[in-house]
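Take a sample.
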Amino acid sequence: MSEEQRIRRTGVDSSIRTAAVWQVVAASARRQQEQLGRPLRVLDLGGGSGGFAVPLAEAGHDVVVVDPSPDALASLARRAREAGVSERVHGRQGDSNTLADVLDEPVDLICCHGVLEYVDDPAATISSLHDVLAPDGVVSLLVAQRLAAVLSRALAGQFEAARTALVSADGRWGESDPLPRRFDVEQIHARLVASGLRPVSTQGVRVFTDLVPSAYLDTEADRAGLLALEQAVAERTAAAFLGRLGAGLHVLAVRDD
């Protein structure tokens, strides 16, 4: 595989796992920048090695990545350096409890992707996001979705696990489930509203990606076809019911209190 092919395959805007979310985040950032007349101050909570932070910095924004892992932050620094955006990417070791200590001023955009599944108190984490967000600021929230686990367990013939995922309070399918919790649309919306954040965009992502056998993705054409299908589902209101089956739930919310 050539270097150009590798980049196309793994870039945030071309990876099957991230493209639909990135499309929404990038469009929202462009709108905010036009409204504010300046680059954004961005917080990426749990942003790890910079999969979203570095592309946002490449777009001209100033990004603070708060992550508890020093190894992830070291990878972030290397990635930012290789992309030539070290001056706009700032890694800080911490978590949602330390945001007030590591941020000098309110932020315009927050990415919180794959975090709420693991924190001790999701409601407290969302409240922390609200508190560091500027008026009219935007939160991009990505969480694991319950019905995807129900479907995947059922298709694997694990019917009791599927039923457990459906009826359990935390969306887990059993003791060996690697995720501490999953969410439903209604749960996430309620938690956001309770913290003073108004949902403005909701989409299910990775509806098919986690279910398609890898043997069906041998070529770039196969991957491009699946990516186009995922994006079509994410973009069409008429297909919103399919989004309920997506492995991820992506919500944009604004602070307008």
